[in-house]
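Bug report (template v2)

What were you trying to do?
Predict the complex of my protein with adenosine-5'-diphosphate.

What happened?
Run completed; filing so the output is reviewed.

Input:
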Amino acid sequence: METIAFFNLKGGVGKTTSAVNIAWHAANEGIPTLIWDLDPQGAASWLLKSKVKTKHEPKRFLSGKTPVGELVKPTDYENLDIIPAGFSYRNFEQQLMELSSQGKKT
Ligand SMILES: Nc1ncnc2c1ncn2[C@@H]1O[C@H](COP(=O)(O)OP(=O)(O)O)[C@@H](O)[C@H]1O
Ligand SMILES: [Mg+2]
């Protein structure tokens, strides 16, 4: 499995657009592709017309309580699935940092 992440502290530089386009091209080539929308604003979910309103708490899959696979939803495009964003992702970076510092203590 290949993972591609787009990260830039600046907004409006094309991260979401690039992620969605590259995911679509991969899917169009026949590669089963999952796009995980980590932005609480949900622009990638909107671009892919995902109507699923997600309420999952990132804390639950970070702790292993919710298997990530349960969050995967189909899109209108063949080979392209999505984990849609939700407002609960607003604290996701903080939660990842906490998890990472817990790992350092053990
Ligand atoms: N290659 C591009 N050429 C022209 N406009 C682009 C390009 N990539 C993105 N945009 C536009 O720039 C704006 C910001 O893009 P977006 O992907 O939402 O940025 P980010 O996710 O980094 O905040 C959007 O209006 C998008 O349509
Ligand atoms: Mg974006």
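What did the reviewer find?
The chain has one domain: 15-105. Residues 15-105 form a domain with the Rossmann fold fold (CATH 3.40.50.300).
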